[in-house]
Amino acid sequence: MLFSDIIGQENIRLQLVQAEQQNRLSHAMLLLAPEGAGGLPLGLAFAQYLVCENKQEKDACGQCSACTKASQYIHPDIHFSYPVIPRKPGDKPLSTDYAAEWREFISTHPYGNAYDWLQFIGAENKQGNITANECHDIIRKLSLKSFESPYKILLMWMPEYLGNEGNRLLKLIEEPPANTFFILVAENQEQILATILSRTHLVKVNPLPKEELVDALVNRAKAAPARARQAATIAMGNYREAMYLLQHAEDDYHELLRNWLNYIFTGNRPALQAWIEQIASAKTGRENQKQFLRYFINLLEHSLRVQFLDRQLLAFSEEEMDFAAKLNKLANLQQMEQITELLDNACYHIERNANAKLLFHALSIRLQYIFRNKPLPQV
């Protein structure tokens, strides 16, 4: 992958290229990027740049033998490590066991997250890991001489999935063989082993600016400008999430939200129960549940903006703008803050496989308390 293939992140590209050109390259780098900001594409492009035989001022050449192999993810001196699952009970899986699937995934879903990857390899509800066995394999591979490039590179995606067995890599990270580089690509700094974090050079990647995201959706995904702007507004700098919204444009979150709040306010328990059964079903799916809650959060934000901004500057439809205006009459600023915090927490738990039925039951009850301006029940 070339830097020119990446959406935005020009400052990070410049930082990486200059570090190599000025011989200031850290042997262990951690690209900390929020979901959908391009952490993995940056890591892939930088690995290709390092092995390129004819480096250009701002990018790899894309034409040499090394670039050809790197772009197909088969360069013998670029090694990959990522979370995997056992194919059958008792297996001790390695990343290389899934090499074919990995090449296909990063070719088609470079902005995907760990959930996308694990579903891609059929994990279902299994937890992915980077195991002790994998750590031993990394040590073995990096102890060998490079085959073609002056550099040996390990690109580890999602080091958050390293347990304490990651400490086996500490000596290698701290004192690697000559011209050996670690590129770690992560989303959550708090979930990385402190011992590994302290031995890496941290490079923070910001979410994509809204205009760059809109431009990418229009020019790459061929989305209509109005729809692209709406998706970019909800996605908040996350290209993966924006693409998901475009692909599920038929999902009527507005109608779903209006029904939910109507059942809560009218106390229609049978209808609310049926609504919860629908939203919590496997057919709806975890990603749709999360997107729905984020849609609600953004509508709350817009309910405040409609008081001060021209409606033409906002991304939602006229019907949604009218609904956002009604929310101002139902909840004050303090109540909206409470609801937003509640929805944020719900998104967090959905990502971690919370029971959707229990979660939306609890949300419905707590929303009733907030709208009635009563203290939330303690749990």
Automatic annotation (TrEMBL):
<dbReference type="InterPro" id="IPR027417">
    <property type="entry name" value="P-loop_NTPase"/>
</dbReference>
<protein>
    <submittedName>
        <fullName>DNA polymerase-3 subunit delta</fullName>
    </submittedName>
</protein>
<dbReference type="GO" id="GO:0006261">
    <property type="term" value="P:DNA-templated DNA replication"/>
</dbReference>
<dbReference type="Pfam" id="PF13177">
    <property type="entry name" value="DNA_pol3_delta2"/>
</dbReference>
<dbReference type="InterPro" id="IPR050238">
    <property type="entry name" value="DNA_Rep/Repair_Clamp_Loader"/>
</dbReference>
